[in-house]
Design brief:
By secondary structure, the protein is of the alpha/beta class. It has two domains: 125 residues, Alpha-Beta Complex (Aspartate Aminotransferase, domain 1), CATH 3.90.1150.10; 230 residues, Aspartate Aminotransferase, domain 2. The protein is built from twelve helices and eleven strands. Strand 3, helix 4 and strand 4 form a beta-alpha-beta unit. The protein binds pyridoxal-5'-phosphate (PLP). The site of pyridoxal-5'-phosphate has 14 residues, from helix 3.
Length: 366
């Protein structure tokens, strides 16, 4: 029987053996609560302290700048809701940012939207065009989860700062896949999620630049130095650090290989479907292994089902939103033609995918 082909890594990634191995002791003997004062707490507490430093090192931060969260959604909500003044967000953010911003707007806070270019990029120009007096936080994603385009976050952070605002980036699709250095990028807040880089689900972190304060989202205990209440998910935190460290170590090699595979995939798709269109392909930079393609006259959702029957996993638009059959807000924001938008599928390759997988995906779509 043919091997399964999982090509939906933007939705979630398989747990790495390194992560599982790191997690197991904390699910067995070392199960203590890090906040306890007896000796059961020692190993979990030490582990959380150590891996906070590991994570910080992987993203160019200090350990005290990392706060663990229940994933990307919480990190985004925290950054958006925890800071006070007017908000500028891009119109093609993940719903974790967009709906948090809508919640804030409902409470009377000023929210304005920057529209990405047709190539799927937010640049300094788009921030300037949307700018209004009173904006205190700009939030623009590092990489888009539907079309894989990568923004120049350093330039955007500099633009926000030059206008007196703080800058948040949702780096959920980028961390563990492309080099991220919070210090060099000069961002104030940065969100990440472990299950997008071979850690487990329901764990992530928010980078908060030293000296900045965010209002807390959760009322409760004094965990995370009083920044985020709730008993730490020790095993998931430890697994996240192991996965991030392993991914950072292999990032350049895997990234190059995935860029090559994505190029082959685009080439084979064009050969098989000469009228194929690639939303976001005109952007200066794409995530490694990421191909969003529209096949005119076909249904993206239909294709997902056809491929699924052939044991191949891809996605139609964003997986988080797979029950929403309307044209995605991302494709709308980049003015992608509606008649083509229904035929879009997202193929997101990962480290374990091969050239053989690429050929099988294209063959299965014919
Ligand atoms: N931000 C982006 C860009 C995402 O792709 C996702 C998940 O798809 C999230 C946020 C939400 O992350 P999580 O699933 O960890 O809540």
């Amino acid at each position: 029987m043919k091997r399964c082909v999982y090509a939906d890594h933007a939705a979630t990634t398989p747990l790495m053996p390194e992560a599982l191995e790191a997690m197991l002791p904390f699910m067995k003997g070392d199960f203590g609560n890090p906040s306890s004062i007896h000796s059961w707490a020692r190993k979990p507490r030490e582990a959380v302290r150590e891996v906070r430093a590991t994570i910080a090192e992987c993203i160019g931060a200090e350990p005290e700048e990392i706060s663990f969260t229940s994933g990307g959604t919480e990190a985004d909500n925290w950054a958006v809701k925890g800071s006070g003044r007017g908000l500028l967000v891009s119109a093609y953010e993940h719903h974790a940012v967009l709906n948090a911003a809508a919640h804030e707007a409902g409470g009377g806070r000023m929210v304005v939207y920057a529209r990405p270019t047709r190539n799927g990029v937010i640049g300094v120009r788009q921030i300037a065009d949307a700018w209004q007096k009173g904006i205190g936080l700009v939030s623009v994603m590092t990489a888009n989860n539907e079309i894989g385009t990568v923004n120049d976050v350093g330039a955007l952070a500099a633009e926000a700062h030059s206008r007196g605002a703080l800058f948040h980036t949702d780096a959920v699709q980028a961390v563990g896949h492309i080099p991220i250095d919070a210090r060099k990028l000069d961002v104030d807040f940065l969100s990440a999620s472990a299950h997008k880089f071979n850690g487990s689900k329901g764990i992530g972190f928010l980078f908060v630049r030293k000296g900045l304060k965010l209002a807390s989202l959760l009322d409760g205990g004094q965990q995370e130095d009083g920044r985020r209440a709730g008993t730490e998910n020790v095993e998931a935190i430890v697994g996240m650090a192991a996965a991030l460290k392993a991914n950072c170590a292999r990032m350049v090699r895997v990234g190059k290989r995935l860029d090559g595979l994505a190029e082959r995939l685009r080439g084979e798709l064009v050969a098989a479907f000469p009228d194929a269109v690639f939303p976001g392909a005109g952007a200066p930079r794409q995530l490694p292994g990421f191909v969003s393609v529209a096949l005119p006259g076909r249904s993206g959702e239909g294709l997902v089902h056809i491929l699924d029957l052939k044991r191949i996993a891809v996605s139609a638009g964003a997986a988080c939103d797979s029950r929403n059959t309307q044209v995605s807000h991302v494709l709308k924001a980049i003015r992608f033609p509606v008649r083509l938008a229904k035929g879009v599928i997202r193929i997101s390759l990962g480290a374990e995918n091969t050239l053989e997988d690429v050929r099988r995906i294209v063959d299965a779509m014919r």
